[in-house]
Design a protein that fits this description.
It is built from 18 helices and 28 strands. The chain is α/β, with parallel strands linked by helices. The protein has three domains: 239 residues, ANL, N-terminal domain (Rossmann fold), CATH 3.40.50.12780; 209 residues, ANL, N-terminal domain (Rossmann fold, 3-Layer(aba) Sandwich), CATH 3.40.50; 110 residues, ANL, C-terminal domain (GMP Synthetase, Chain A, domain 3, 2-Layer Sandwich), CATH 3.30.300. An eight-stranded mixed β-sheet has the order 2-1-10-9-11-12-13-14, sandwiched between helices. Helix 1 packs across helix 2 and helix 7 packs across helix 8. The termini are far apart.
Length: 571
Amino acid sequence: MPTSLVDILQWRSINEPNRLAYRFLSDGEQDEKLLSYSELDRRARSIGALLQLSVKPGDRVLLLFQPGLDFIAAYFGCLYAKVLAVPAYPPHPARLEISLPLIRRISTDADAAAVLLNSSLYHAITKQNSTREEFAGMKLLVTDDNKLFVNADQWRQPDIHANDVAFLQYSSGSTTIPKGVMVTHKNLMHNLGLIENCFEVSKEDHGVIWLPPYHDMGLIGGMLQPIYSGASFTLLPHLMFLQRPLRWLQVISRFKATISGGPNFAYHLCIKKIRPEQREQLDLSRWRVAFNGAEPIYHQTLDQFADYFASCGFRKEAFAPCYGLAESTLFVVGGIKNGTPLTNNFLIDGIRQNLVIDSHGENANTQTMVSCGHVNAEQKIEIVNTETHEPCSPGEIGEIWINGNSVANGYWNKPAETELNFNAKLSTNNEQKFLRTGDLGFLHEDELYVTGRLKNIIISEGKNHYSHDIERTVEESHTAIRSLGCAAFSIPHDGHEDVIIVIECEHKLHGKEEEIGKAVREAVSLNHGLKVNAIKLTKPGSIPRTTSGKIKHFLCKQYYLEGSLKEMEVL
């Protein structure tokens, strides 16, 4: 049995050398570059040989590439050299100063020995003393130099063990300062096997992925799964999708893709941005797995997308809601077989008090929730009381804890946080160690329902209110509010929590500030029984987000407290 992806890629390069591994569309449409298994293996050996001459096994190596085939070759080059790849969002050569603070934090935390990058970024960094100093102490290794590839035969295969750390997956920073998750080869192989089994991936499949490779869903699900399962994937940059969501569905249609997906907002964008006449040019009939994860999943989005694109051959049965996180490599539960996504109605008042109360119908007092998937035998899930660490009783909401072979080794160079988050123990069992996810949810008929993040809860009068629920209410309260353009959080004040809403507006307000404020306050009061203490109307792009589009609530709160939001008006 293979120990690592190095074994699998080498096998494929020998037995299926000319088979397509990846197609990359740099403009999201026609600018096409192809990479076969044999070519990927050759490039990985070349970069691996360069690394073996430059750094030691186990050293950390920063990857600074735009999405594309160069990133993929560099990542596998790190695996081939037995060094720890550290994917990071790359700076634009013309705007280095914007990205450098985050890169500095990651490289310092990882104690990176080298950087893999292309020649244009190399020249941008080295021509200025200030940026050159930022990378002092790290070797800058250029991978798009043709002379590099003569080194492929100099590569020497290292001895890779299952428990060796394969790479560091730095968190997106959506809730905390980024931390490097230590993902082992054993974690990778186990998690990729889970995904393959859940979605029934085979070499007959073709996938389309726009998710960035710097975070878990894009990297594991979009870049590594094809090598593990033998499927071919077409990739496009996430910015090309965000600029024009139609591109995503056009690529699925053009290449008759069977697997693709993204967070809930991606499907929502397609509904809003793709016109009927554009829709009629699409063929989505081969799309059999449309995964949806990484943020709250809304049943309305699934229904609307399925209805809107039914004429293109899309089937609601293709939807595969799922749940995962980087600390568990990627995938925890998900998918469905032979059916539409499972939804259930629960009483809102019960959820606010951490109780699961089933309701037989949908009405103003209920919340329709989407199951993220059936609990599988490969991973143990416990719903735990966050104060007592006792397993919750059936019908209670608690923190989701996970035990299994996909759970990573911990955070790089952070023993205290690793002990707290990766070595948690139930008060009723001191034997097993669990990963604390920081997510809240419950099990209902062996299906996992996720209700929100522990740190994004607003507590008022003893009741829990989830930020994403409030944000959805705010978004729908007035037409001037941008789609997915608001952040809700609370700040302590005089012994209670003040509710703050930050809103991005579509256009100039033209005196509508008071109207928007009134609509927001009435909607939040009516739907959640909450008083909004402050509203900030801001310019588009003011709310900080990760590259995959998730709101960074902690950073948004920080900007609010500092008064550094690009506001239009304070109400």
